TrEMBL record:
Annotated source species: Sulfobacillus harzensis
Keyword NAD belongs to the record: yes
Record's catalysed reaction(s): UDP-alpha-D-glucose + 2 NAD(+) + H2O = UDP-alpha-D-glucuronate + 2 NADH + 3 H(+)
Family to which this protein belongs: Belongs to the UDP-glucose/GDP-mannose dehydrogenase family.
Name of the protein described by the UniProt record: UDP-glucose 6-dehydrogenase
Keywords: NAD, Oxidoreductase
Phylogenetic classification of the source organism: Bacteria, Bacillati, Bacillota, Clostridia, Eubacteriales
Residues annotated as domain UDP-glucose/GDP-mannose dehydrogenase C-terminal: 340-443
GO function term, MF aspect, one: NAD binding
Binding site for NAD(+): K35, T86, T123, E164, K290, R354
First-tier enzyme category under EC: oxidoreductase
Pathway: Nucleotide-sugar biosynthesis; UDP-alpha-D-glucuronate biosynthesis; UDP-alpha-D-glucuronate from UDP-alpha-D-glucose: step 1/1
Domain of life: Bacteria
Length: 458
């Protein structure tokens, strides 16, 4: 099938590369010349395990290409994905300007053959499929002075659930695929596009072997509004699960319970499930914060006060600063102290810094007058580039960050940090204070190594 994908970011690039690897002919449409140049050199502009080899293979086999000239390619695509960013505006509403630009370009390039399914893959506020329809018409009208025939296209919703760090795996072996459309032919087209995934009939690529037991993928076929809501509801539920764990952690700490044991104890209950129950400095990343904010705005627009959504966000806001309180208790004062921070990416396995809890912590440390030395295995270049305002020192290695520091804050639990012996951390820190924002280490082992250790909720 001929497919175009607007936006070669975390979602669009992975979706495009995977669909091309499955045999479709995919054109990525991107506005960033820097990204286009990198991808044409078979290099990935983002850090995502396995993506570069997947890209190279699809480009070399002639199934994947990239352009900035949307109008000349969209007209011949049977499926057009919109996977551009939908960042938050200051009031929490999603900024749809990039979606609008893409939809206008689709309208300008449309000529009626083939019949097209335009798919919102970006996370867009409820009702956005209608907006995309209007913008596509506007684009066509700009060129032709009249509206396009409604027979030529339809707008569908196909929200994305991939996780950065395991994006290829999640695209090939998703828990489900959600398709929202008002027209049966659009659903048929999308089922056809995804058939190799739905039926698990493809030869797994070397980058991502098929896990045992995956023989098919469930598909949820629904209307557009429900489909758009499914994405927000999923993220709100996951964020709430983490905030719930943090709420219980804060109570556990006061009564002397160990949150890690408590969450294991509840997570084994199949009605609850053990994932997303890790207490720590809370959730972040490109999606949860902005999607919670957008859903809250939507609820309020319709006269509903979403109390649970507000509580989830409040708990998270306070949780990020808990490590600073811990540090203040241990250091008294923080001013003039040297603090090492391990991990800046919002989670391990990615270089993404969007809404990373580490950034809130670093900002607060600097505000309090601390000297901050940071290390992250992947995300330091992004930190240099995106946050030149943060006056931090960049360490060459995790160990290097510790030298001369009074305390260590662990903000992102990169697995490689486990390779550094606790005794080394104790030796290198002048005061041996460790504030473990992810309950990464065993408290007893840390204390035995001579560290003054504090976790969250234990
Ligand atoms: N990142 C994730 O883990 C994830 C997961 C699920 C859903 N989503 C949703 O997917 C959407 C995209 O997220 P992302 O993380 O991939 O964003 P991103 O910022 O990594 O990528 C967006 C890309 O779109 C490009 N772009 C902007 N305007 C364009 C235009 N008019 N034409 C062509 N390209 C254009 C940008 O240059 C950028 O490369 C968002 O709505 C997000 O909420 C993201």
């Amino acid at each position: 099938m001929r497919v175009s994908v607007f936006g070669a970011g975390y979602v669009g690039l992975v979706t495009g590369a995977v669909l091309a690897d499955l045999g479709h002919h995919v054109t990525l449409i991107e506005v960033s010349e820097e990204k286009i140049a990198l991808i044409n050199q078979r290099r990935s502009p983002i850090f995502e395990e396995g993506l570069e080899s997947l890209l190279a293979r699809s480009i070399d086999q002639g199934r994947l290409s990239i352009t900035n000239d949307a109008e000349s390619v969209v007209g011949s695509s049977e499926v057009i994905f919109i996977a551009v960013g939908t960042p938050p505006l200051p009031d929490g509403e999603a900024d749809l300007r990039y979606v609008r630009q893409a939809a206008l370009a689709i309208g300008r390039g449309m000529h009626g053959h083939p019949r097209q399914v335009i798919v919102n893959k970006a996370t867009v506020p409820i009702g956005s499929a209608n907006l995309v329809e209007v913008w596509v018409q506007d684009g066509y009208r700009e060129v032709h002075g009249r509206a396009p025939s409604s027979e030529w296209y339809t707008v569908a919703s196909n929200p994305e659930f991939l996780r950065e760090g395991t994006a290829i795996f999640d695209t090939l072996y998703p828990d489900r695929i959600v398709l929202g459309a008002d027209e049966a032919w659009a659903i048929d087209r999308l089922q056809e596009l995804y058939r190799p995934i739905l039926e698990q009939s493809f030869e797994p690529p070397p980058e991502s072997p098929r896990p045992n037991g995956v023989t098919s993928v469930p598909v949820v076929v629904t209307d557009r509004i429900s489909s758009e809501m499914i994405k927000y509801a999923a993220n709100a539920f996951l964020a709430t699960k983490i905030s719930f764990a943090n709420e219980i952690a804060n109570i556990s700490e006061r009564v002397g319970a160990d949150i890690v044991q408590v969450m294991r104890g509840i997570g084994l209950d199949q009605r609850i499930g053990g994932r997303f129950l890790n207490a720590g400095i809370g959730w972040g990343g490109s999606c949860f914060g902005k999607d919670m904010a957008a859903l809250t705005v939507t609820a309020e627009e319709y006269g509903y006060q979403p109390r649970l959504l507000h509580a989830t966000q409040d708990v998270n806001r306070e949780q990020r600063l808990l490590v600073i309180k811990r540090l203040q208790e241990a250091l008294k004062p923080v001013k003039g102290r040297r603090i090492a921070v391990w991990g800046v990416a919002f989670k391990p396995g990615t270089d993404d810094l969007r809404d990373a809890p580490s950034l809130t912590i670093i900002e607060e440390l600097l505000r309090l007058g601390a000297r901050v030395r940071v290390y992250d295995p992947i995300a330091l270049d992004n930190l240099r580039r995106l946050r030149p305002d943060l006056e931090v020192e960049f360490a060459d290695s995790a160990e290097d960050a510790l030298d001369g520091a009074d305390a260590l804050i662990l903000a992102t639990e990169w697995p490689s940090f486990a390779e550094i012996p606790l005794a080394t951390i104790a030796d290198r820190l002048t005061r041996g204070i460790v504030i473990d924002g992810r309950n990464f280490w065993d408290p007893e082992a840390a204390r035995q190594a001579g560290l003054q250790y504090r976790g969250i909720g234990r």
